UniProtKB/TrEMBL annotation:
UniProt-listed InterPro entries: 6-PTP_synth/QueD, 6-PTP_synth/QueD_sf
EC number: 4.1.2.50
A single GO molecular function term of this UniProt record: 6-carboxytetrahydropterin synthase activity
Name the record gives this protein: 6-carboxy-5,6,7,8-tetrahydropterin synthase
Pathway the protein contributes to: Purine metabolism; 7-cyano-7-deazaguanine biosynthesis
A Pfam family annotated for this UniProt entry: PTPS
Catalytic reaction list: 7,8-dihydroneopterin 3'-triphosphate + H2O = 6-carboxy-5,6,7,8-tetrahydropterin + triphosphate + acetaldehyde + 2 H(+)
């Protein structure tokens, strides 16, 4: 007997890719439990399943930086409640992140993929359920997007929740309308400009020498620090909330198309976002 939960939740996070570097991602979570019926005629109550899995995902995956500890050119250490990660791009450029321990999840795999992460999570999740549950299948599924999208990472210094973490991210659609007509070609242009990007807030930038951006800020969870190549960063003057990203994009597109009425629908992961006009 099997129990399934489609689209149980979705997770927004960033991870280190062995070639692309810091990569924001958003995946839907699908779950199947295998087991025998209890005295109530159930494998496990749906409410218990959803609550337990979502709480675990919120703690270890959602809004975290996932680091595959088996990837090449990587070192990491944990001390005094903090985690530090250093890594080299294939061309030798550096990456460094220092965060409170809860903001970085060390994954014992050589690479983060939908399949490797699901396998890593599965054994730990199985321990959450009663004895009637004998097996667990987990799948991470990217949202199907017919059109332009981009991967971005960011950190919200002023946020009281987990969005304050300096390197979490999303895989997001973008829709652009000029004079009430959707412009898919322009969407593709902006998705390419923002491909695999870190959207940094100018006030968080403490140094930009030698082709590197160095960000640092103090937030309720602790001190956060990030260094990565300048050419994978995109600076804005405000906090990088999706509302401010939408406003910024609308203003930039208006500057390039001054005679047009501009509307931007900027997404933050799956099924949510902000609308701005200029």
């Amino acid at each position: 007997m099997k129990l399934f939960v489609d689209n149980l939740t979705n997770v927004d996070f960033s991870y280190l890719h062995p070639h692309r570097g810091l990569l924001g991602e958003s995946w839907l979570v699908q779950l199947v439990l295998d087991g025998r019926l209890n005295e109530q005629g159930m494998i496990c109550d749906f409410g218990i399943v959803k609550k337990a899995v979502k709480a675990w995902m919120d703690k270890y995956i959602d809004h975290a930086l996932l680091v595959p500890t088996g990837m090449p050119r990587l070192s990491h250490r944990q001390h005094d409640g903090e985690t530090e990660v250093e890594w080299r791009y294939p061309d030798g450029r550096g990456f460094y992140c220092r965060s409170p321990e809860q903001a970085i999840t060390l994954v014992g795999e050589p690479e983060i993929t939908e399949h490797s992460l699901a396998g890593w999570c599965r054994e730990q999740l199985l321990k959450l359920f009663p004895g009637e549950v004998e097996g667990l299948e987990l799948a991470f599924v990217p949202e199907r997007i017919d059109g332009a999208f981009y991967h971005y990472s960011h950190g919200l210094h002023q946020h009281e929740g987990n969005c304050q973490r300096i390197a979490h991210g999303h895989r997001s659609r973008i829709e652009i309308h000029l004079n009430d007509q959707r412009d898919e070609a322009l969407e593709a242009v902006w998705a390419e400009r923002l491909r695999d990007i870190y959207i940094g807030t100018r006030s968080h930038l403490v140094d930009s020498a030698s082709g590197m951006h160095h960000y640092r800020y103090q937030a309720p969870q602790g001190e956060f620090e990030l260094r990565l190549p300048a050419d994978v960063c995109y600076l804005i003057d405000t906090e990088s909330t999706v509302e401010q990203i939408a406003v910024h994009l609308a203003a930039e597109i208006k500057r390039e198309h001054p005679d047009e009425t501009v509307l931007v629908r900027a997404f933050e992961g799956v099924g949510k976002g902000a609308i701005a006009t200029a």
